[in-house]
From TrEMBL:
Presence of the UniProt keyword Flavoprotein in the record: no
Molecular-function annotations in GO: calcium ion binding
Taxonomic lineage of the native organism: Eukaryota, Metazoa, Spiralia, Lophotrochozoa, Mollusca
Keyword field contains Metal-binding: yes
Organism: Mizuhopecten yessoensis
Residue ranges constituting the EF-hand domain according to the UniProt record: 54-89, 90-125, 130-165
A family per Pfam: EF-hand_7
Protein name in UniProt: Neurocalcin-delta B
Length: 177
């Protein structure tokens, strides 16, 4: 993919200002430490800097989603597109991106174990112990046909009816006190 970024093109595609793209480029460069890409370790460090708990597991899930070419590193374009997708103004794009994040094994459905894995990673990131409880509630809410799998259609309906599902996947760092 490389590190070239078409600022105007991305701004138009994601309905954001060119200034926002330029700011994301700055953040990327700031976190690369002189490298041309973010390794998994650097990606974890970025997450661990901004969240109060251990964000490593959640960062790994995000890293796997951002690394679209599967080369084991996140280049500038992947980083920017990943952030823009996770905060997309287009709800359809955001839901599709979120479903693909929950579908860790890329099977086309979401299992109870995948929901638990994300919920526990989220809990560790915020130093809480409610991961399994949240996972059970989310799974009950999303798995409408009780087949122990969540299809894209079930996920889409649940995400449109409860915005907290998307907030769980795309957490915001705590506000400074």
């Amino acid at each position: 993919m490389g590190n070239s970024v078409n600022v105007a093109g991305l701004a138009e595609e994601f309905q954001v200002s060119q200034e926002e793209i330029v700011e994301l480029k700055r953040i990327y460069k700031e976190n690369c430490g002189g490298s041309r890409f973010l390794s998994r370790d650097k990606f974890r460090k970025v997450y661990n800097k901004v969240f109060p708990g251990d964000a490593s597991s959640f960062a790994d899930i995000m890293f796997n989603k951002f690394d679209t070419d599967g080369d084991g590193k996140v280049d500038m374009r992947e980083f920017i597109v990943g952030l823009l997708m996770s905060d997309a103004k287009n709800v359809d794009q955001k839901i599709k991106f979120a479903f693909e994040m929950y579908d860790i094994d890329k099977s086309g459905t979401i299992s109870r174990d995948e929901v638990i894995q994300i919920s526990q990673a989220y809990s560790r990131m915020y130093n809480t112990d409610d991961g399994p409880t949240v996972a059970d509630r989310l799974f009950r809410f999303m798995d409408k046909n009780d087949d122990d799998e969540i299809s894209f259609e079930e996920f889409d309906e649940a995400a449109r009816n409860n915005k907290e599902i998307l907030n769980l996947l795309f957490p915001r760092p705590p506000e400074p006190v």
